[in-house]
Amino acid sequence: MTAALSVDSLWKIFGPRSDKIIGTPDAELSRADLKAKTGNVVGVKDVSFDVAPGEVFVIMGLSGSGKSTLVRLLTRLIEPTSGSVNLGGVDITSASEAELRDVRRKQVSMVFQHFGLLPHRQVIDNVAYGLEVRGVPKKERRAKAGEIVDLVGLSGYEMSYPDQLSGGMQQRVGLARALAGDPEMLLFDEPFSALDPLIRRDMQNEVIRLHSELGKTMVFITHDLAEALKLGDRIMILRDGAIVQVGTPDEVVARPADDYVKDFVSEVPKAHVLTLKWVMREPRPGEALDGPTLPVTTVVRQAARTAIASDAPIRVMDGDTMLGVVDEEDIMRVVVAEEES
Ligand SMILES: Nc1ncnc2c1ncn2[C@@H]1O[C@H](COP(=O)(O)OP(=O)(O)OP(=O)(O)O)[C@@H](O)[C@H]1O
Question: Can you tell me the ipTM of this complex?
Answer without folding.
Answer: 0.96
